[in-house]
Design a protein that fits this description.
Largest sheet: 5 strands, antiparallel
Number of strands: 34
CATH architecture: 6 Propeller
CATH topology: Neuraminidase
Low-confidence stretches: 1-5, 33-41
Number of domains: 1
Distance between the termini: 64 Å
Length: 501
């Protein structure tokens, strides 16, 4: 007896055709955007100016207490900064899986009362991510960052400050034109009443390789002026290679340690540069350029096997870091290994390290079930198992990159970030975790649960449908393979940009 052909459901067939058409449209849309053919592809400066004009329409500062469980939009590459006992969350980028929105919203978290507030302020800075922020004299200072679309970048070089008492923004106009170049992915810390900026990158479009820098600047509020640190120009004097996304760790003797980071190396005859996560450590001895002295600043290499020992983090990019007194806390990150074709295998981390800048030693702060056992290995995040892991009750923060963290009082807070769902989706996080910053085995507490399990469940259902139809799509769409390769290339390029920050 011959096999009977299964009768197809007309409704399902229609839905399948609609999904195929939508997929073709998305692929064509991405190609058009890359070629600059869409009318939507306006000059980024114009888009930013429009947003700026809208923000200037506000006439008063409003502060609204947030009562709902959802405290803020999911985001990564934002800043979380303590001013006294309060934490301020500003900017970042939020992805819903298909589109990315750059933010300039401001939230205040009162740590002593566990209260969240949305602040709609006057003269708000333009939307940005991968910027930096520090607290100084009851003000929150923000410098640089980027506004990015699928094909373009706009990097800032402006300086802003928020008065923590009035909650009003003010753009700082330095008295001279000498200042750091436009950049994002840089790092910034407070140093003796001034603001220290190091490194970063600049990129005009997705088609261009990033330009990394390793210059160092000081901003003095008292002088309202930027000045570069001066170093000897003698040949053979070592200094840190170009990088972004590193860790700056202030020391009690007023030196600053630079650890890790990311840069790209152009290989011979290669069209695209190859990403390189750094594991080196450098010590910066600062000669204040605002002092009347001819002394020069200097760099010296600090070997991990020598001056800095202990359990150092494995090679990685995309960590978040925060410092308090003589300790710097580092959390998360990712390490990529190139796979077949355009693919990469990513290992996301959920471990917490502390750098003692006085003893110059790393310590791992993961809770141990048995003090006689060695620390567990870093947990690799299986993207395929993400949905089950997020739905399950977790006692520790999920692995992530691009998170932000801050130490207020004696507590470390970790907020947001991003990780990958399946092979194509990036899931921005909106959870908040905290733990005692002093204790090695302190438990984690989840302050804000976030919406990632609900959103990842929706995406997982979509991916399941796509997998069921994959064979039919390959038969019906002759261009699917080439479109998929092109889309994969774009996604890998966007992913690589995440590591620079």
């Amino acid at each position: 007896m011959g096999n009977k052909k299964k009768k197809k459901d007309p409704a399902k067939e229609l839905a399948k055709k609609q999904r195929k058409a939508a997929k073709q449209e998305r692929c064509a849309d991405k190609r058009d955007r890359k070629a600059g053919l869409l009318d939507e592809q306006q000059d980024l400066a114009q888009l930013i100016a429009q947003q700026r004009a809208k923000d200037l329409e506000r006439t008063e500062v409003t502060v609204t207490r947030i009562e709902s469980e959802e405290k803020f939009a999911p985001r990564c590459n934002a800043t979380l900064t303590n001013v006294g006992d309060d934490l301020y969350l500003f900017g970042g980028e939020s992805s819903d899986g298909d589109q990315t929105t750059v933010l300039n919203d401001l939230y205040k978290y009162r740590t002593t009362k566990n209260e969240w507030f949305k602040v709609e302020s006057l003269n708000t800075p333009s939307p940005r991510c991968s910027h930096q922020a520090v607290s100084l004299n009851d003000h929150l200072y923000v410098f640089g960052g980027e506004y990015a679309t699928l094909t373009q970048f706009y990097h800032y070089r402006d300086l802003w400050r928020l008065d923590a008492k009035t909650l009003a923004w003010e753009q700082v106009e330095p008295c001279t034109k000498t200042m750091p170049s436009s950049r994002s992915g840089h790092r910034m810390v407070e140093w003796r009443g001034k603001i220290l900026v190091f490194g970063g990158f600049y990129k005009a479009s997705q088609d261009q390789n990033a330009v990394f820098v390793n210059d160092t600047w000081l901003y003095s509020p008292a002088h309202n002026e930027w000045r570069p640190l001066k170093f000897t120009d003698a040949p053979g004097v070592a200094k840190p290679p170009l990088r972004s996304g590193c860790v700056l760790a202030p020391c009690s003797d007023f030196s600053v340690l630079v650890w890790g980071g990311y840069s790209e190396i152009r290989c011979d005859n290669a069209v695209k540069a190859r990403g390189k996560p750094h594991t080196d450590c450098w010590e910066l001895k600062i000669a204040d350029p605002f002092d009347d002295s001819s002394t020069l600043s200097s760099w010296s290499r600090v070997k991990l096997g020598g001056s800095i020992g202990g359990s150092a983090p494995s090679p990685r990019c995309g960590v978040c870091a925060s410092y308090r007194n003589d300790t710097t806390h580092v959390f998360g990150g990712v390490y990529d290994v190139d796979g077949e074709g355009l693919s990469t295998e990513s290992t996301f981390y959920d471990d917490h390290y502390v750098l003692d800048t006085t003893k110059k030693r790393w310590k791992r702060r993961d809770a141990l079930q048995d003090p006689d056992l060695p620390p567990p290995p870093p947990r690799a995040w299986d993207r395929k198992a993400l949905q089950a892991s997020l739905v399950a009750v977790s006692l520790t923060p999920p692995p992530r990159i691009g998170a932000c963290c801050a130490v207020a009082g004696k507590v470390l807070y970790v907020l947001g970030g991003t990780l990958e769902v399946g092979d194509t989706k990036e899931l921005a996080l909106d959870d908040v975790w905290c733990r005692d910053a002093r204790k090695k085995d302190a438990p984690w507490t989840r302050l804000v649960g976030g919406t990632m399990s609900k959103r990842s469940a929706h995406w997982a259902a979509e991916e399941s449908e796509n997998e069921d139809e994959e064979e039919d799509e390959e038969e019906d769409l002759g261009s699917t393979s080439s479109d998929s390769d092109e889309t994969a290339g774009e996604e890998e390029e966007v992913k690589r940009d995440q590591w620079t920050r």
